[in-house]
Amino acid sequence: MAETLYFRAEELTRYATAMFLSVGMSEADAALIAGDLVKANLRGVDSHGVSRIPMYLERLRRGLVNPRPDVKVTKVAGAVAAVDGDNGMGFIASNIAMNAACDIAGEMGIGLAGVNRSTHFGMGACYALRAIERGFISMIFTNSSPAIPMWGGRTTFLGASPIAAGIPGGKHPPYVMDMAMTVIARGKIRLAAMKGDPIAEGLALDIDGNPTTDAAKAFEGVCLPFGGVKGSVLATLMDLMSGVLTGANFGGDVKSLYFDHSEPQNVGHLFFAIKPDLFLSLDDFGARMDEFYERIKVLPRAAGVDEIMMPGEPEQRREDERHRIGIPVTDNVIADLTAEGASVGIAFPDGRATPFGTA
Fold first, then answer.
1. To which protein family does this belong (predicted)?
2. DSSP state of 1
3. 16, 82, 186, 213: least surrounded by Cβ within 10 Å?
4. Number of domains the chain contains
């Protein structure tokens, strides 16, 4: 069983920023990526948090990712922008693209930004939350390296290709959705493999096509799509919209973030932004969102359910909690980050054995 220490978000953010600065990134870009990684940890999405730093740094050091990309935004139609990520970290181009889509939507009512020559962009919910902060509805598509088969196939072809979306609330929490097309996010299988933990049955196959609960074998093998054929069909949509449409790699050509260091990934993303007051006033929209929220709270609950929540509400509560008690990080991740920092003279912070606020 992995041991855990607790860290303040600010400590991890400072460490992560320093690590990205060590490979030549700008202060602003290093801080952006560090903030998004720690945001994932705060929301309980530890598979997309600081544990990914060594993997990102390796790709930067190998020259597969440009530490100082010249991201270009080109208006290609009235409500559409094309974003060239210049093979930089996906966080950078995606932040620019989400803001570009919101800017266009502010003028046109709806905005779309397509990105190519990008890389893994972290937790998709970050972009939905940014759009919500600006008052916009959003949808975020991405493709990714092969992780699941086309329906009927036995080899990886489609990416886990998560979809995210956000809808501003009124006085109650907003709707925030972020999910992969696999039964479980591939990053969570990776995290289990790092800890030496098993995974549940029905999540993955090994490289020989056999069901496995061994996380390491699963990570090297095939993830299974959620909902059977439905998950495979949605992953196909993500690849066609994010890859084929944008000019990025597609159809099995996105290079593995984990195993393939032969060339840049060329991931594609698509960002939609929509003004929430297109069909009614903003006040009416907020009131209707509040009414929806209040209705779900009084629905009859299934056995064992204490409360029905809006998508994104559990993660927000986890974020609030981790701001209070600290972010738990397991010893294997601490060891990796400590070694990574030592290689460039950056100390990993000392953790606390018990949550903050306790004796």
1. Belongs to the LDH2/MDH2 oxidoreductase family.
2. -
3. 213
4. 3
84: domain CATH number is 3.30.1370.60
Do 203 and 234 reside in the same domain of the chain?
Answer: no
For 202-239, the pLDDT digits (tens) are: 888 888 888 899 998 888 888 888 898 999 999 999 99
Query: How many other CB atoms are there within 10 angstroms of residue 195's CB atom?
Result: 16
Q: What is the pLDDT of residue 220?
A: 82
The pTM for the full model equals: 0.93
CB neighbours (10 Å) of residue 72?
Answer: 13
Which residue ranges of the chain lie beneath pLDDT 50? none
DSSP letter for each residue of 47-113: GGSGGGHHHHHHHHHTTSSBSS---EEEEEETTEEEEE-TTB-HHHHHHHHHHHHHHHHHHHSEEEE
| 334 and 211 inside one domain | no
Residue-level pLDDT at 30: 98
For residue 93, give Cα distances in angstroms to 14, 84, 145, 228, 359: 22, 7, 18, 32, 43
- Distance (Å, rounded) from C-alpha 145 to C-alpha 249? 9
- Cβ distance 273 to 133 under 8 Å? no
Same domain? 115 vs 130: yes
Tokens read off for 111: 């905005």
53 Cβ contact list (under 8 Å, min separation 6): 16, 19, 37, 337, 340
